[in-house]
Amino acid sequence: MDVHQLTFVNRGNCGFIGDHETNKSDIVTLIIGVILVLVSFLPIHGRFPKDILRVIAAVLCAYPSVISAFEGLKRKKVEESLLMDIAVLAGMLLGDFFEAAAVAILFRVGEMLEDYANNRSRKSIESLCSIVSDIGHRVREGGGFEIIDADDITVGMKLAVLPYELIPVDGVIYSGKGTIDTSAITGESIPRMVSEGDKLTSGTVNGSTTLFYEATAVKSQSGAERIISMVTDAAANKSRSQTTVEKFAKYYTPAVIIAAVLIAVIPSIITKDWREWIHRALVILMASCPCAVVISVPLAFLSTMGACAGNGMIIKGSNFIEALAHADTVVYDKTGTLTTDRPLVGEVTAAEGYGRERVLAVAAKCEYYSTHPLGKAIVSACGEVDMDGVTENEEIAGGGVGATLPEGKALCGCGKFMTEHGIDISAFSDAPVYVALDGKIIGTVGIINEIRKTSAETVSALRKLGITKQVMFTGDDESRAAAVSREIGLDGYKCELLPEEKLSALEELKSGGKKIIYAGDGINDAPVLAAADAGVAMGLGTRAACEAADVILTDSDLTRLADTVNQSKKTVGIMKANIAFAIIVKFVVIVLGIIGIAPVWLAVIADVGTMIICVLNAARLLKVQRIERTVTSEISA
Fold first, then answer.
1. FRET label pair with 95: which of 67, 146, 298, 467, CA 20 to 30 Å apart?
2. Helical spans, DSSP H, in 345-438
3. Backbone angles phi, psi at 10, to 5 degrees
4. Cα–Cα distance between 618 and 622 in angstroms, integer?
5. 275, 281 Cβ separation under 8 angstroms
6. Of 141, 166, 165, 135, whose CA–CA distance to 153 is shortest?
7. Is the dihedral of CA 619, 620, 623, 626 positive or negative?
8. Where are the alpha helices (DSSP H) in 187-272?
């Protein structure tokens, strides 16, 4: 089967659908075929009218398969559909018109069920396109702006993004300050402050102010489109099982045709009973059709990739589904993976003459009315805030807030914000929040991230799924690493690691025969994500991590890791069950056919019946079964 970027797998009738989708005309044709066969059983005078009705039904329902087989032969490929076409034609030549019609109708029913399952998978994937904007606002030279198609945006074009509007392409701000919501792309829940010189990524949402920026990429090369590309490219990465099945079908189909011809010819020459042995050859031909086997593997994988993509879990290829299913070890990065992005106040430093409480109190008075997560964290850490005499509280676009206190004008914000207001911050080391009073820095407020509520839940769920070892690699110090590991119940940790040391530690685990999943989110995780059997990136913010990873959890919900492993195990289990079921049924019918016991209709059931059962079984994967929750997910909370 041929692989295509957008249409996944080009069907040779028994493979996956490419551009084909069951439409109303296909359904009408099938219904007409069924009606014609049913009418043929009415008390019509003479056999000829009945046979004509059955021949018409067979031709109508077999027509798509004949076209598919003919296209395959033009490419010098023997498609599986050719087996069905030969059986229909031979049945009509032998005068078994009902059996010929039954073969064509049942086969068409199987194709439609396959179409339905495959198209459901594609629609799940296509739903991700909601993060892509179709329009942009081009800034006119004389002032104002005009709406244009996002596909017409070029690099260097001046654009405006209005309040609460989806950003169409990547770019750099040249005028304006405000916040942007990056949650659709990065999973980061905290709005990000942006101003002149900051980068914007397509698929993110602007805040309450208008921003003016210059495009640095066209739509097809921007951040949101990368998500779509990662999913649509996924089917090109075939699993070992899928590739093996396709190679099997490539040689199996011609072999079955040759075997059927030999069974039809050689015994007929010896016994002179051509009708009987051609009939037996037809039984073998139909029962041997590998459609159920060929369909069961790619359909199971594609159903899972589509369902997972629609639930925030992008799996880049079916080979990674197998890697997830067979893994026995999970390695986690700490920051951003086991810890949440929800901020908490950490270390507070103070200038000479000011205590920790005083610095935190001034910051809380500035942030008291702020809706920003950092502001809320500072107010919460301060406890009771005395707002007597505090006036002129204001949130200043660009990264800070201000207020007038009885003792003077106070400012609270990032280093860039302080520098823009002429305040010297050189006396303090880098910090996320600086606090100033009357134009001088009085201290800094450190921000830390708390452990995700779902971390312990995920560790527990993965153990139930057969993951025997779970450890953490981090660049953080010993005390913090030990505390996190102990609280969520890990089997161990390695701390104070540089990126290259993380990679060495992972290779050491792999050398012991471990099948490893690595979960991380930063640029420094990219080498380890690539080296793991299955690399899982949290969110879509770090391009290096996303490109190196094999699986992306777009909303940064760690419990999705357990869901992905669970779904992968279900997929491999269903795939094996389908193959085993199809082979056993076909083997039994082929043996019965050789000894002359099985009729053609039983061969049809062995082929089409097993195909339908396998398709329906694989279609169960179109819905992701979430793991049983023991703790309320922080995402839903």
1. 67
2. 356-367, 373-382, 415-420
3. -75, 125
4. 8
5. no
6. 135
7. negative
8. 223-232, 240-271
Question: 3-class DSSP state for residue 437?
Answer: strand
Please check whether residue 612 is in contact with residue 113, taking contact to mean a CB–CB distance below 8 angstroms: yes
Inter-residue contact 78 to 254 (CB < 8 Å): yes
Each residue's pLDDT tens digit, 91-116: 787 677 887 787 778 777 766 766 66
- Three-state SS for 393? strand
pLDDT for 581 beyond 50 = yes
Tell me how far apart the alpha carbons of residues 360 and 435 are, in angstroms, rounded to a whole number: 8
Cα 429 from Cα 3, distance rounded (Å)? 54
Pairing of strands 400-405, 205-206: unpaired
- Residue 516: strand pairing partners: 329
Amino acid letter, 357: E
State in Å, rounded, how far the first CA of the chain is from the last one. Answer: 45
Contact assessment for residue 173 and residue 161, using Cβ atoms and an 8 Å cutoff: no
Whose structure tokens read 């300050």? 177
pLDDT at 114: 61
The set of long-range contacts for 72-78, using a CB threshold of 8 Å and a minimum separation of 24, is 72/12, 77/12, 77/250, 78/253, 78/254, 78/257
CA 138 – CA 159 distance, rounded (Å) = 5
Q: Rounded to an integer, what is the distance from CA 282 to the centroid of its chain?
A: 43
Entry pTM: 0.58
452: closest CA among 204, 179, 187, 192? 187
Gap between the Cα atoms of 112 and 60, Å rounded:
15
CA dist 549 and 315 (Å) reads: 9
Measure the CA–CA gap between 192 and 189, rounded to whole angstroms.
Answer: 9
Comparing CA positions, the residue from 225, 226, 224, 249 lying closest to residue 9 is 249
- Predicted pLDDT of residue 633: 39
CB atoms within 10 A of CB 519: 28
Residue type, 576: K
CB atoms under 10 Å from CB of 4, counted, come to 15
Q: For the chain, how many residues are written?
A: 637
Q: Is residue 292 within 8 Å of 607, Cβ to Cβ?
A: yes
Please list, in sequence order, all residues whose beta carbon lies within 8 angstroms of the beta carbon of residue 44, skipping any fewer than 6 positions away. 50
Q: Which of 104, 54, 55, 110 has its CA nearest to residue 84?
A: 104
pLDDT in tens, 288-325: 776 666 667 777 887 788 778 777 788 887 788 889 99
Residue type, 496: E
Instruction: Please tell me the predicted confidence (pLDDT) of residue 361.
Output: 94
Asked if 333 and 505 touch (Cβ cutoff 8 Å), the reply is no
Q: Which residues are catalytic?
A: 333
| Tokens 């069907």 belong to residue | 11
- Tokens 């690699």 locate to 473
- CB burial readout 381-412, b (16+ within 10 A) else e: bbeebeeeebeebebebbbbbbbbbeeeebbb
Sorted by where each starts, the structural domains of the chain and their CATH numbers stand as: 3-127+232-307+568-622 (no CATH), 134-167+169-221 (2.70.150.10), 308-340+452-564 (3.40.50.1000)
φ/ψ region of 120 (left if φ > 0, alpha if ψ in -120 to 50, else beta) reads alpha
Q: What whole-number distance in Å separates Cα of residue 373 and Cα of residue 376?
A: 5
SS3 at position 623: coil
- By the 8 A CB rule, do 397 and 178 touch? yes
